[in-house]
Structures are given as C-alpha cells and as structure tokens.
Amino acid sequence: MSLRAHTILVFDSGLGGLTVLREVMRARPDARFVYAADDAGFPYGRWEEGALVGRILAVMERLIRRFEPDLVVVACNTASTLVLPALRARFTVPFVGTVPAIKPAAERSATRHVAVLATPGTVKRDYTHELVRSFAGDCRVTLVGSSRLAGLAEASLRGETVDEEAIRAEILPCFPADDPRTDVVVLGCTHYPLLADVFVRVAPWPVTWLDPAPAIARRVVHLVGQPLIGHEGDEAGLAVFTGRQEVSPELVRALAGYGLPLVDAEPMPVA
Ligand code: DGL
Q: Is the pTM of the predicted complex or chain greater than 0.90?
C-alpha cells in the first residue's frame, strides 16, 4: 500500500484562517497544506446570506477540482455557521467547520455571563442563536458583531501599525458595566486571535479569551488519523488567493512564518 501524505485544504475569506492552520499543522505536520483565502470576497461578515452561500460553493468547486483535498477545514465562522450543510450536500470530501465556542464558554464561566465576539454575519445567524439556546441557556450571552476587527487583524498581520484605541472600541461591548461581569469571551472569528495580545492589553478587566483552533485540530486528527511516520512535513505549504491581495514582501514573510513558503492565485473576482 502506498502511503501518500494527506492534502488538507484550509479555507477562509482572508488571513484569519491562518490561526486555525497553525494548530492543524502542529497536529499533522506530515500533511500537505493548501491555504485558500477568498480575499476577492473579503469581508464575508457583510455579505447577504443567499449570495454568500453561492459564492462559497463556486469558490470551493474550483479549489476542490484543483487541489483534490482529502479534507477541507472551513476556518471561518461566518461561512461555517451558514454553508456547511450546502457544502456537505454538494461535495463528497469531508468538511470540518469552525463555529463559535459557546458550549465550552458556558462550561467555563463562573459568573454565567459570556460574550461572543464575531462578525456581524455570525451574530445574526440562526445557527449561532441555536448554539446559545442549546448550550448556554443558563448564561447571559452578549453577542457582539464587529465590522472592523477582521480588517484590522489583516493589517496587523501585514505588519501595519494598528490603532489600539480602535480595537478597544470594538471589544468594549463585550464588557457591559452592570453585574454579573463577563468572564469568558469567545473569539468567534478566526481573524481575532491575530489580535489576542492587544485584546488582553486593552480589555477593561481580565477574561478568558476562547480560541477554537486547538479543538478544530483535534477534530481533524480524529477524522484523518495520527501523523504518518516517515513523512515529517516534507511538503511545502501553498497559499492561494482569489483576488486583490497585494502580495507584499511583508505578507510573503508572514505566510512563510505560518509554514506557507509558496504563494499562488486562483483568480475569482466577485461579479
Ligand atoms: N475569519 C472569518 C470568520 O471566522 C470572517 C472574516 C470576514 O468577515 O470575512 O468569521
């Protein structure tokens, strides 16, 4: 039997999915990784739901045909809370989604007040409201949709200086002044862990910031198994972009730091 390295495709609207990729790469260093960013469609947080489903199905069609992955990680809450059923109905490859970690947040909260910091799309989704009803019924849950943080996170990853006051203003609604105080904040957008250090610095009081990436990596290993012995990450990772991403030297360096030395395009402008 020939043992070929698995191909794992990690998909997001932009660069946020890199925070998930990093954990999955640690768990399966032997796999071949393709990171696909639909940057032509970024940000997904502002899309109308029907149009976003169509967009993601069309992009995924192209990516699956080109890279023939063994597994796809949808490293985007805004997409996963909407499109996973349609993806699973259309394609045979297994999909692992990323959805707000509301259940673990409720399990950890001592004050019974948690906040979910996500995109405006994710906080509107029926799926998110269902997670709250099913797993956090006895908690106060403050849902916060930020339209600026994903862009600020991308700027920070590209090496630009980010305005900490602007970030503070975006996270403040997670911290209502009345009791009980929030003690857990779910990072419900994969871009946000890129700003985790700043969040800790500018938060009005200390909380647990929940990043779902380690749980996603465990789910991937559960589906594709432990690393193959003798294949120790000999495949170079590839990043592909559907659109405008200006591939500056800073971005190339950042991508290489995430194990993606190769960069390519799969042009797919938004009509
Ligand atoms: N990274 C995406 C998420 O997890 C969203 C960013 C966007 O609005 O495109 O929700």
A: yes
